[in-house]
Amino acid sequence: xxxxxxxxxxxxxxxxxxxxxxxxxxxxxxxxxxxxxxxxxxxxxxxxxxxxxxxxxxxxxxxxxxxxxxxxxxxxxxxxxxxxxxxxxxxxxxxxxxxxxxxxxxxxxxxxxxxxxxxxxxxxxxxxxxxxxxxxxxxxxxxxxxxxxxxxxxxxxxxxxxxxxxxxxxxxxxxxxxxxxxxxxxxxxxxxxxxxxxxxxxxxxxxxxxxxxxxxxxxxxxxxxxxxxxxxxxxxxxxxxxxxxxxxxxxxxxxxxxxxxxxxxxxxxxxxxxxxxxxxxxxxxxxxxxxxxxxxxxxxxxxxxxxxxxxxxxxxxxxxxxxxxxxxxxxxxxxxxxxxxxxxxxxxxxxxxxxxxxxxxxxxxxxxxxxxxxxxxxxxxxxxxxxxxxxxxxxxxxxxxxxxxxxxxxxxxxxxxxxxxxxxxxxxxxxxxxxxxxxxxxxxxxxxxxxxxxxxxxxxxxxxxxxxxxxxxxxxxxxxxxxxxxxxxxxxxxxxxxxxxxxxxxxxxxxxxxxxxxxxxxxxxxxxxxxxxxxxxxxxxxxxxxxxxxxxxxxx
Length: 556
Description:
Elements: H1 5-16, E1 32-39, E2 44-45, E3 50-56, E4 67-76, E5 82-86, E6 91-98, E7 113-118, E8 124-130, E9 135-143, E10 154-159, E11 171-174, E12 180-186, E13 189-195, E14 205-206, E15 218-221, E16 224-226, E17 238-240, E18 245-253, E19 255-264, E20 275-284, E21 287-297, E22 302-307, E23 310-318, E24 327-335, E25 340-343, E26 347-348, E27 350-358, E28 371-376, E29 397-403, E30 407-413, E31 420-426, E32 429-430, E33 435-437, E34 446-452, E35 456-464, E36 467-468, E37 473-478, E38 490-494, E39 500-506, E40 509-516, H2 525-533, E41 536-540, E42 545-551
Parallel strand pairs: 1-8, 9-18, 19-25, 27-34, 35-42
Antiparallel strand pairs: 1-2, 1-5, 3-4, 3-6, 6-7, 9-12, 10-11, 10-13, 13-16, 13-17, 14-22, 15-19, 19-22, 20-21, 20-23, 23-24, 24-26, 27-29, 28-30, 30-33, 31-32, 31-34, 35-36, 35-39, 37-38, 37-40, 40-41
């Protein structure tokens, strides 16, 4: 057999350049999981972290997701935080990172585990996991007028919520003899130090008050947030990274007057032995801050102390009743410079009759899996449940019992693809977004939900320079947003390995879009809102499909 020079040359180049051989001669890649363990925020590697592996047990009922630890499969991260776990065969696996002195991140900071499904066609997976070290927030509190340190003062480190505002509760600390404090054991995140009036929350509600005290005012340390030294709206939270100790300096606080509210609560709807839960909340530009107070006898006048000038809402609810039979009161009020009196009659919830209607020219979709509920927007205490969700009948009609007479947010689940809520009406008037204001004097409460079947779609690809972004997160918000706290008008999708994404079921109108890397989801709500305001502007029409290229956004 004769060989030509060209055939010889191609054979030589194939060997010299490592040209791939025929697939039949190439052994399949060894299944394995590769990964990195990092500290969120700094992306510093976590060295010598233990990596454990769990396999998923078969069967329809899976306790703990069906994951069972395989003690024979372990690994450790190297100096760069990297690890590799070779496996015998493809399948579902769960890897978890642990290290003494570290713990799993909190909300939004990324998990310390990953779940993957290896296949014959894709036998290798790459994952990122996160571990954090506890953080410390320190400072010194002094009396502004006397210049002296304040000992035994109780304060809280409160964390900024991903949805805005501060998370409920906080981590407590007490100043020492020199006014110094150290709040320890914090997860990484944005924090402020909150100084409240030095009185126990449950002791702020009195059922009687001596006549000589009726007109007096109390004095206590001003309710402030630091850094900033004013209210929650003016707080300047500090970003505390994993393992860091942040000193926020000297906190000069002063004593100010505090006022009380005389709550006249008639005994209507009270029964023998009934108690009412009492709570309060304050609405700020960062969101609502809610404080449960205590319980008290039903139908008795109450005196609630500890109010500085500002706007508030008191909420009362009879305890221990079924949701449809709970009598409640929700009373907004303002404090200026004196004690005040308010009336808080307890009223039973009302029935709301609703109907789903199809937009003209369309048909009502199958509502078999649809649920509708109303949730109060005054951040009611957890002791009071919202009205139970209702399932509409085939003709679209439904009924909700025991709905409180306050502003309610309409939630609709299971509407199905290809349909969207075009409009919500209460007693014939169009609602603002998904909020309806129930009228206490109305003879009936009618809710109409108009459904349309012409949703828009946005497809595209996310790029970083000239390279596609692997599995980006794309967020679309209808613009302008009516309510930052509402999920209405907000949609998102995760792209594939080539950065391609698809968002369907969009209400026609204007949208702002941004694309994020997965690790950017730990960023604060304020940064997300700023990015959306400056995001790509796009108009989506009925049944329209928009195709676009998005540049990935690095949130700051």
